């Protein structure tokens, strides 16, 4: 036995040594032969870093290997090489060496990048063989022939770009075995293995994105006719399997005749055929039961041609579900079809969903749908059933909602062209009828901290209008009730640039706008998000008036809350048209008084939202007004300093940007105000007058009535001269106060305020005055003697005396003037002397 093993091993070693020696001896001759044959057939440049011949690389076959091979393409404008490979090996039988003819039976392509390219004219970069040799497949007269039994692709990236037909195929062959065999003019191709599809793009749609595919296919390519025949082949995507069969002519019109049939299909099979942008959203759904599918593509594909597409699909007694929830559609039946029609375009396309029925949870539903002419759509559908909203939302979540519940009962029919929804003939050509009833509906919005609860109501469709009957519910702390009509609702939902008209009555017990306006989302119209600085936090809310909305709303609200603002018994009318909202005779109780408002908000320019308002205030508590309006964003005179009832008429104009920030310099207002039973409490600037008036009197300054007309413009409040009769003193005030708290006030105080008690009792209104000025900022201001006012007073007095002197020269009352003039001059001198005080 030992001898036998030794002899056998020695013989094998001897044979291998002999074979290796023979390969080594013939290596240069074989390499030259192959290079010569390749140069004879190729019309493109090939770069090779190294060529070697090995007996052991692909044993028992002899392998001729090309290392770092680069094959240039046939199109000069496409600079990328047709292929680059780290290694390409051609194998043949050892005994071919002695016959001096070589038959290649296997090809190994490893770690390669193949870039196949077709330009806009239909010219290919892979036409690398000379045409004269292309149809000579007999191999006569050639020392190198191909009889490929297998082609091995390992780590091969293949990118096929077809500019003419707008297609891109990006595939990666992990481990694929292919076979090639010549039979007359036919190239027989076998393909089997795993392919990773990065994506397959046809026009603007992507298919099979990031999918692992298993392929088992047999193809026949006729070199003379340049057409491809696909014998029954299998394509598997995850658990979905398709049977594909047909043909394709790669010339003339590019005729295709392809049939696809689902084998043991489920909903994943149907979804995987859809473009990626649709398939991704539906990939979470699964099914049990019978789901069937088959389709056909037939016709021209070149030169802008679109083939006939026909698909039939459906299900019988199937169950549909999501993998991560327990809600299911059970006992589902559906018969569906799609075709692009006899003209193979959108206008002749038809989608039909017939005999739809099933159960969502325990509630049954049924319906039908026909959608024809995708260019000028004609839609006909009906739906009937009672749906559990929680089950519906769990099975098909809506992007704007975080949760939902309740019962929705529907019975709706619609038929007509969608374009007829905008025409005057809508009543003749469009039929919409039916009802929707909602019970105990509740839902929460994702981007807004709002919870809608106990929503119920009844909706009736009539043509393109929707009648709302007793829709009511609550939103967080607020509640609402609505009755009315939504005109043109069907056109608004189905078509772009359509208007919606609302005629309704709205009522509420409470509207808390601190909650209702809190948000972080941008509207579907793309309006800018606005921000409101709350006392406790920075929260976003949006203000926008859609140009597509017109509204006539009669409102009655018991109570409104917005930050510090509180109002009750609100009623009036709100009109909206062309991005302008107008209020008519809105009345409300606020600050222990009554208020009437008329105005409009013009939002046609989002960055220049114009607000004009006319308001009438009756007996409002002035301290409450300052508190509710947050002291008008200043801290000089606060609500705690004020007392009294104000009656006023206000005309104002304002501008806001899209974030509702006011354009302060553009603010104008005219305010005619009357304050009765007023008071000024512990007001610091008044305390500084204690050098003139007793401090205890200044701490609680009261007056019976004050009236004035105030003008606001250029960020400044202009106060005309007004007289205040108070318990402390009668004084007059005038001046300005800017929005950045720079003030300039002029005060005139009768001199008798500085006399003793008895002197004040005998003083009269003609007593002399002390002139003061208050100027500076609210944080740093001064009270000083007003020299300018004194000069002005002296000038006025001199003018008066000058006039009197003229009268004297005219001879009027000559005698009286002669006797009284000295006394008048003396009195004037005394008055002037009293007006000068040095502090």
Q: What order do the helices and strands come in, and which of them pair?
A:
Blueprint: H1 2-41, E1 46-58, E2 61-71, E3 83-92, H2 96-99, E4 102-118, H3 131-134, E5 144-162, E6 167-183, E7 186-202, E8 205-207, E9 211-222, E10 227-237, E11 240-249, E12 255-263, H4 267-273, H5 276-282, E13 285-300, E14 308-322, E15 328-339, E16 350-360, E17 363-372, E18 378-388, H6 389-395, E19 401-417, H7 426-429, E20 431-445, E21 451-462, E22 465-475, E23 478-487, H8 489-494, E24 500-508, E25 511-512, H9 513-516, E26 530-533, E27 538-541, E28 549-562, E29 565-577, E30 580-590, E31 593-602, E32 609-621, H10 622-628, E33 642-656, E34 668-681, H11 684-687, H12 695-698, E35 700-713, E36 716-725, E37 730-738, E38 742-750, H13 757-762, E39 769-777, E40 781-785, H14 787-809, H15 814-835
Parallel strand pairs: 4-5, 24-28, 25-28
Antiparallel strand pairs: 1-2, 2-3, 3-4, 5-6, 6-7, 7-8, 7-9, 9-10, 10-11, 11-12, 12-13, 13-14, 14-15, 15-16, 16-17, 17-18, 18-19, 19-20, 20-21, 21-22, 22-23, 23-24, 26-27, 28-29, 29-30, 30-31, 31-32, 32-33, 33-34, 34-35, 35-36, 36-37, 37-38, 38-39, 39-40
């Amino acid at each position: 036995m030992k001898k036998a093993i030794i002899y056998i091993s020695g013989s094998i070693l001897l044979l291998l040594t002999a074979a290796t020696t023979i390969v080594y001896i013939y290596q240069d001759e074989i390499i030259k032969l192959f290079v010569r044959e390749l140069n004879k057939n190729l019309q493109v440049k090939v770069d090779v870093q190294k060529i070697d011949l090995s007996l052991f690389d692909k044993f028992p076959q002899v392998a001729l290997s090309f290392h770092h091979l680069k094959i240039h393409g046939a199109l000069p404008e496409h600079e990328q090489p047709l292929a680059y490979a780290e290694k390409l090996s051609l194998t043949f039988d050892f005994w071919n060496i002695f016959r001096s003819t070589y038959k290649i039976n296997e090809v190994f392509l490893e770690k390669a990048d193949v870039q196949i390219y077709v330009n806009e004219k239909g010219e290919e970069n892979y036409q690398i063989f000379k045409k004269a040799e292309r149809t000579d497949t007999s191999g006569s007269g050639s020392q190198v022939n191909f009889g490929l039994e297998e082609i091995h692709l390992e780590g091969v990236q293949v990118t096929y770009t077809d500019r003419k037909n707008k297609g891109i195929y990006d595939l990666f062959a992990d481990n694929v075995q292919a076979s090639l065999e010549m039979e007359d003019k036919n190239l027989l191709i076998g393909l089997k293995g795993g392919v990773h599809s990065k994506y397959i793009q046809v026009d603007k749609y992507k298919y099979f994105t990031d999918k692992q595919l298993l392929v088992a296919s047999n193809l026949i390519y006729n070199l003379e006719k340049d057409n491809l025949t696909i014998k029954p082949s299998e394509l598997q995507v995850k658990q979905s399997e398709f049977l594909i069969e047909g043909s394709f002519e790669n010339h003339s019109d590019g005729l295709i005749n392809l049939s696809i049939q689902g084998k043991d299909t489920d909903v994943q099979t149907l979804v995987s055929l859809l473009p990626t942008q649709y398939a991704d959203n539906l990939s979470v759904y699964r099914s049990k039961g019978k789901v069937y599918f088959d389709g056909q593509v037939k016709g021209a594909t070149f030169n802008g041609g679109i083939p006939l597409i026909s698909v039939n699909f459906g299900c019988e007694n199937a169950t549909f579900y999501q993998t991560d929830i327990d809600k299911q559609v059970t006992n589902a039946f559906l018969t569906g079809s799609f075709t692009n029609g006899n003209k193979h375009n959108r206008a002749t396309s038809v989608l039909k969903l017939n005999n739809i029925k099933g159960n969502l949870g325990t509630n049954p539903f049924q319906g039908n749908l026909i959608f024809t002419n995708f260019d000028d759509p004609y839609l006909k559908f009906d739906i009937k059933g009672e749906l559990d909203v929680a089950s519906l939302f769990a099975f098909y979540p809506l992007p704007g909602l975080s949760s939902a519940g309740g019962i929705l009962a529907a019975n709706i029919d619609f038929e007509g062209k969608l374009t007829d929804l905008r025409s005057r003939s809508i009543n003749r050509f469009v039929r919409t009828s039916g009802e929707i009833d909602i019970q105990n509906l509740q839902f929460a919005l994702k981007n807004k901290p709002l919870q809608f609860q106990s929503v119920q109501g009844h909706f009736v469709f009539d043509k393109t209008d929707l009648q709302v009957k007793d829709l009511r519910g609550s939103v967080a702390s607020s509640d609402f009730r609505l009755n009315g009509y939504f005109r043109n609702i069907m056109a608004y939902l189905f078509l772009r640039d359509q208007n919606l008209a609302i005629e309704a009555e709205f009522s509420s017990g409470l509207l808390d706008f601190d909650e209702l306006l809190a948000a972080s989302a941008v509207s579907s119209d793309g309006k800018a998000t606005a921000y409101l600085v709350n006392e406790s936090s920075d929260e976003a809310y949006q203000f926008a008036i859609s140009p597509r909305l017109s509204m006539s709303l009669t409102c009655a609200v018991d109570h409104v809350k917005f930050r510090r603002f509180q109002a009750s018994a609100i009623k009036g009318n709100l009109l909206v048209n062309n991005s302008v909202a107008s209020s008519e005779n809105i009345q409300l109780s606020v600050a222990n008084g009554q208020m009437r408002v008329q105005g409009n908000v013009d939002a046609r320019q989002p960055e220049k939202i114009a607000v004009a308002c006319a308001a009438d205030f009756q007996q409002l508590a002035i301290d409450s007004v300052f508190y509710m309006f947050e002291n008008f964003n200043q801290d000089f005179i606060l609500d705690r300093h004020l007392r009294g009832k104000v009656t006023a008429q206000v005309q104002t104009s304002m501008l806001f940007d899209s974030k509702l920030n006011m354009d302060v310099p553009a603010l104008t207002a005219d305010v005619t105000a009357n304050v009765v039973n007023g008071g000024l409490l512990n007001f610091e600037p008044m305390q500084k007058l204690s050098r003139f008036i007793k401090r205890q009197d200044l701490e609680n300054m009261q007056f019976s009535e004050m009236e004035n007309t105030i003008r606001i413009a250029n960020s400044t409040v202009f106060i005309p001269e007004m007289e205040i009769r108070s318990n402390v003193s009668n004084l007059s005030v005038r001046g300005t106060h800017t929005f950045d708290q720079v003030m300039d006030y002029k005060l005139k105080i009768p001199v008798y305020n500085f006399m003793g008690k008895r002197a004040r009792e005998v003083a009269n209104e003609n007593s002399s005055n002390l002139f003061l000025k208050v100027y500076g900022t609210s944080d740093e201001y001064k009270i000083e003697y007003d020299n300018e006012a004194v000069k002005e007073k002296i000038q006025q007095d001199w003018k008066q005396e000058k006039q009197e002197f003229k009268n004297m020269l005219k001879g009027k009352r000559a005698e009286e003037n002669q006797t009284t003039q000295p006394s008048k001059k003396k009195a004037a001198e005394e008055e002037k002397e009293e007006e000068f005080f040095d502090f």
